Amino acid sequence: MAKTLSSVAQRRIQSELTEWMRSPPEGCCLESCEPMTSWVVVMQGPEGHSRLYADEVFRLRIDFGEQYPLDPPDVVFLAPAPIHPHIYSNGHICLDILYSGNNGGWSPALTMSKVVLSLRSMLASATEKKKPPGDAEYCARVGNRSPKLSRWQFEDDKV
Amino acid sequence: MASTPADRKAAESLKTEGNAFFSKGKFSAAIEKYTEAVTLCPDWAVLYVNRGMAARKLEHWGRVEEDAGAALALVGAGASERDAMKGHYLLGLAMAAGGQHARSKQHLRKALDAAREANDSIKDEIWRELASANYLLWQAESTARRIRHGDMRKELAALLAAQQPTDGSAPGANGTLELPNDWQELFKTAAVHDCAVEAPSTFTCPLTMEIFRDPVVTPSGRSYERTALLEHLKKVGRFDPITRQPMTEAQVVPNVSLRAAIELYLEEHPWGWGEVK
């Protein structure tokens, strides 16, 4: 089901695709961008200090809405999601730049290239493989709905 | 024959009626009212401008050209600067419709400069029309040039082949005539203006990723496309999209130098006009 996109969103996504093809972010490749509004990114686990994810490969889904880039896209890890204190088992990610609103850190100047690099460095800086507190309860409560509907608390900057 | 104050008064009310029809989209009716007014006050430039604007909506380009000409003829004889600006604009549109892109460009340029000077909201519309005219002009010129260069290549290759002794090495592997590398390089250099490439990122907005039309600068010194930044400030938050420094709409300033630099760039890379239409 192809969404109808504003021409702004369409051109912007097209430009990002072109840019991505020319210089893909380190350790990442695009598995699918069909339709253009739904990307699947394959991410090689980063080396990092502790090599926690070094031998793993993850997949991310990025869904763009009509209001992109004013609204951030939906970004989730596909199962199996990395085991990380800021990533829930259903793939939802607690990272401020993925969300707009009061305490969100989204900016329309962010590109998907920058976003996946931030996610990769979030993995790289992890010191232990641990699920977020209340993971099972959270996943049972929100299921597969958009992570943007959750109320996120980002004050915990440490991993 | 000068019109009397009574004529002028009657013409004014006819013009008001015409404008009312115009804003309702009844362009033919508007034209009739303006025409009546013109018979009373033939020296009143705005009547020609308004009639031309209505004719433009109906795409009656002959009428548009005539009225634009009439308005411009009254420059120095009562036509305001706004009348003159719109006269150039209409004339530019009529020329473009008639395929006279080079002349269209000149008139649209004059109109745009005047509209920017006066900060008239019509400037964005004129800019789009100017971009279209430039793009069409480039398309036409570039197609003609590519054909001409193709013919030249063949002619040159044939001439060179004719000069070479027939030692069996002249024709290329597939039987076509080939030019020496230096000459091929030359043709490649000449084709640069006809090949669309990506504009440098300095000239594109980080939000729209397109070449700037109306760049504005924030207190952080970053430039954005005006409409995109204003939408961001309204819908996402009052901060600079890159630096996140808090800011408001009131702090947005036009980046005139960047705009001028882009226009220079577009002069040399005319395919870029297609992106700013």
Task: Give the arrangement of secondary structure elements.
The complex is a heterodimer of chains A (159) and B (277).
Chain A: H1 7-22, E1 28-32, E2 38-44, E3 57-63, E4 74-77, H2 112-124, H3 135-142
Antiparallel strand pairs in A: 1-2, 2-3, 3-4
Chain B: H1 5-23, H2 27-40, H3 45-57, H4 61-73, H5 81-97, H6 101-117, H7 123-163, H8 181-190, E1 215-217, E2 223-225, H9 226-235, E3 253-254, H10 256-268, H11 273-276
Antiparallel strand pairs in B: 1-2, 1-3
Helix pairs in contact in B: 1-2, 2-3, 3-4, 3-5, 4-5, 5-6, 5-7, 6-7
Organism (chain A): Edaphochlamys debaryana
Domain UBC core (chain A): 8-159
InterPro entries (chain A): Ub_conjugating_enzyme, UBC, UBQ-conjugating_enzyme/RWD
Brief digest:
Chain A is an alpha+beta fold and 159 residues long.
Count, helices of chain A: 3
Task: State the end-to-end distance of chain B.
Answer: 45 Å
What do the pLDDT scores of chain A average to? 89
Note the quaternary state here: heterodimer
**So what's the CATH class of the largest domain in chain B?**
Mainly Alpha
Which structural class best describes the helix and strand composition of chain B? mainly alpha
Residues in helix, % of chain B: 55-70%
Overall pLDDT score of chain B: 89
- Extended strand count of chain A: 4
Quick one: CATH class of chain A?
Alpha Beta
Strand content of chain B: under 5%
The 3D shape of chain A can be described as globular
- Kindly identify the CATH topology of the largest domain in chain B: Serine Threonine Protein Phosphatase 5, Tetratricopeptide repeat
By DSSP (H or I, 4+ residues per run), the number of helices of chain B equals 11
Q: Give the CA-CA distance, first to last residue of chain A.
A: 38 Å
Q: How many β strands of chain B by DSSP?
A: 3
List unreliable stretches of 5+ residues of chain A.
Answer: none
Order of H and E elements of chain A: HEEEEHH
